[in-house]
Structure formats: C-alpha cells, structure tokens
Amino acid sequence: MTDVKQFRSVYETGGVYDRRLLAHYYNGRDDLDLISALLTAHYGQPAGGLNVVEFGCGTGRATARLAPYARHLTVSDSSPIMIDAVGERNAQARTICANTRDVVAELLADGRAGSFDLVGAFWSLSYPLGEYFETMTAEGIQPATDVAAARRHASTFVRDMTRLLAPGGHLLALFFDSDTPEQQLVTRLWERIASFPEEGRSYTRNVLLAALREAEGAGDGTLAHTRRSGTAFAPDIDSAIAWFNVVHLKSFPALVNDPTVQEEIRSFVRRYEHPSGEVTLPSGVHVIDFHATRHPAHHLPR
Ligand SMILES: C[S@@+](CC[C@H](N)C(=O)[O-])C[C@H]1O[C@@H](n2cnc3c(N)ncnc32)[C@H](O)[C@@H]1O
C-alpha cells in the first residue's frame, strides 16, 4: 500500500501549503482578520495573559494572531513539517506533533480540563472529525462500517474539546463551506472515489455544530455560528488549478491523473477568470464560536 504521505504532499512537504494556499477574503478582510476581530471582541487588545491551545495549526498563520494574547501557548498538528515550521516561528510555544483527537485526549488525561481561555482550530477540524467516518489511503477511501458509532465518537471528541475551556473561555473555529460551487465540485470529484456519509461533505460541520448545540443544551456554554460569504483569490488560472489539485484533491493520484477531472477543474475555474487573468472563486466560511459560560442568565440585560 502506498504511504498516504506520498500523495498528501500539501501537509507533508515543506513549503507546499504556504505556496498553494489561495488568499480568502470576506468583505475586504482575509480569514486571519476574521480571527483577529473575534479576539479583539472577546479579549480586547493583546495583553499576553491567556492560556491558549491551537489544533491543526499548520505553518502557524493563525498562531501569529493568537500568540500576542498568550501567556502559555500550545500548538499541535499531525504533520511534522507543519510543526517544525510553527516551532521555528514561535519559540515560546509548546509544540505537539499528533492527531488532534489524541492531543485533546492527552490534555484531558493530564488534568487540563477547564484550563484554556482560548481553544482555536482554523480550517482544520474537518480532518479529525472526518477520520471517525473514513480512512484515506493512496488506493482509496475506506468508509467506517458503523456510522452511528462514528457519529457518537466524533460528538464525544467535540464535547471533550469544550471540556478544555476555562469558565468564560472560547472555542473558535473556521470551517469550510461545503455548499459553495467550488466545494460542490470538490465533493463530486471525491465521490468518484467514495461517497460521503449521509449529508455529503457538510457532515463534519453538522457533527461539530450538533455537538456544540448539545453542550449548550447541557448548560456548558453558548454557541454563535455565522456563515460569511467571500472569495478565494488566484493570481492566474494555473494557481487556481494547483489549488484544486494540491489542496482540495491532496494530489490523490486517481483524481489528479484523470484527464476528465482536469478538464472539469479547468472549465470550472475559467468561469471565474477576469480579463486580467486573475481568478476569484465564490467562497464561504463558517465562523464558530463556543463560549463556556455556565449560566444562560448571562443573556439577561444588565
Ligand atoms: C487547511 S490546513 C490549516 C492550517 C492552519 N490552521 C491555517 O489556517 O493555515 C489543515 C491542517 O490540519 C492538519 N491536520 C490534518 N489532519 C489532522 C489531524 N487529524 N490532526 C491534526 N492535524 C491535522 C494538517 O497537517 C494541516 O496543517
């Protein structure tokens, strides 16, 4: 069996993610500005006093926005390449190279429940959640046989993340919008390999939101969820196509080597090409903010 790392180069080979990532804008602000706006709204100007953990940190794009708020900063990612990059940029951080699912379990086992003022996960939670439902290898995708059990375990994982929050803390996540034309194309392409459980590629987001609503119902906090529309900007057609092949399709051989797939991607991105050669793909982001407040009474007017 081919090692999954041989084709998933976007997260496993130095520099690929930063080079292939398209900038995403929402009303003139990029995704990191959305994070900064939330941080300012919740914590004001950075005072370096918070206990912060970030899961799926990648090369540390969002970490750079979190770090000024942190007294103690823990960052984790399953890719050694990513962890090396983020460690170089954040010498003060504790870095953990592991699956988010294991990191959450280990932090709880180490007695860290209720100890983080801020838990962040940006564009990264779909992976550990998806892994409850399917396993990816270079040869294909192996769906979980017991979807109900997968859903239960994924839900427990989400609830465990909320257990890390200190009273008043926030779990902040940015999550891809599976309903945009771009993501619908990605879904159709992946479905050539294997179908997705139940609601298509929205299932990971739905599991996350359902578990957070459950946590709200149990009185563990309150959930704010908005969807922002935006655009992914590519300076030219080739960058837009590389974004599909390397980031969306993870250089998966059966897809990137298929001429009909390549034709579909090319004709899709051409629809959004400007006379300048630049490409602006319609995009969207789900902004998820779980606030660990013990009592719904905080909603009352003061
Ligand atoms: C789309 S990137 C986002 C990186 C970063 N948060 C950002 O906004 O640029 C997703 C990241 O999740 C990591 N990742 C994928 N599956 C993971 C898992 N199960 N556990 C931990 N990290 C994972 C990848 O290595 C990658 O760095």
Automatic annotation (TrEMBL):
Pfam families (alphabetical): Methyltransf_25
Keyword Phosphoprotein: no
Domain (Methyltransferase): residue spans on this chain: 52-127
GO molecular function: methyltransferase activity
Keywords: Methyltransferase, Transferase
Top-rank taxon, per record: Bacteria
A Gene Ontology biological process term: methylation
Name under which the protein is recorded: Class I SAM-dependent methyltransferase
Organism of provenance: Haloechinothrix aidingensis
